[in-house]
Write a structure and sequence with these properties.
This protein has 186 residues and is mainly alpha-helical. The protein is 63% helix and 6% strand. The chain has 6 helices and 3 strands, in the order E-E-E-H-H-H-H-H-H. The longest helix is centred in the middle third of the chain and has 35 residues.
């Protein structure tokens, strides 16, 4: 049975096994500020959290941003008909990516509200900011593609923006995984 602790400063709850010397939500250091916690959560809230809606939703943009990063590069070093097929898949990813990121943001806000009863904790604010940056990058990628396709320097711009988007996705994934077992009581 997993043991949980709660930060006395901000109320952040996490698995004791994830404690790394400071609260990941408010940053207060020291084990003395944490005390044992017994989960008390309504059955409906527990059910919704157990569906893992947000963690599932964020896998789609993670895959798509990697497709927009690697397939255009791979298409540069292959010949037709494989080149054309790679570009078709990359094109589809470019068009769908902004929608899936929006879905990830929406489910993240829902999940944050369920877990913390508000979306203004320092960790969630950082995730929201990086998510908006990722959304903007995906729209710029779409714009570059719509204006230039995969011709000329457009491929390199798309790949560069996709690399920045991948970095955002890595940050979001690492930050989100640190919050997976956390929620406020009630």
């Amino acid at each position: 049975m997993e043991e949980y602790i709660i930060c006395k400063a901000c109320g952040y709850i996490m698995a004791k096994s994830h404690f790394a010397g400071r609260c990941p939500a408010c940053g207060i250091p020291g084990e003395a500020l944490f005390e044992p916690y017994t989960k008390t959560i309504s059955p409906m809230r527990r059910f919704l959290l157990d569906q893992h809606i947000h963690p599932i939703a964020v896998h789609f943009p993670q895959v798509l941003i990697l497709i927009t990063l690697f397939l255009p590069l791979l298409a540069l070093v292959t010949s037709d008909p494989l080149r054309e097929q790679l570009q078709i898949v990359a094109r589809l990813a470019i068009f769908v990516l902004p929608l899936t990121i929006f879905g990830g943001i929406a489910t993240g806000l829902f999940d944050g509200k369920l877990r913390f009863k508000r979306v203004t904790t320092p960790l969630l604010i950082r995730k929201i900011i990086v998510s908006v940056i990722l959304q903007i990058l995906s729209l710029i990628i779409l714009g570059v593609y719509l204006n230039n396709g995969f011709s000329g320097n457009a491929v390199w711009i798309i790949v560069g923006l996709s690399a920045a988007g991948t970095a955002c996705s890595v940050f979001l994934g690492r930050t989100g995984s640190s919050m997976f077992s956390s929620f406020l009581p009630g």
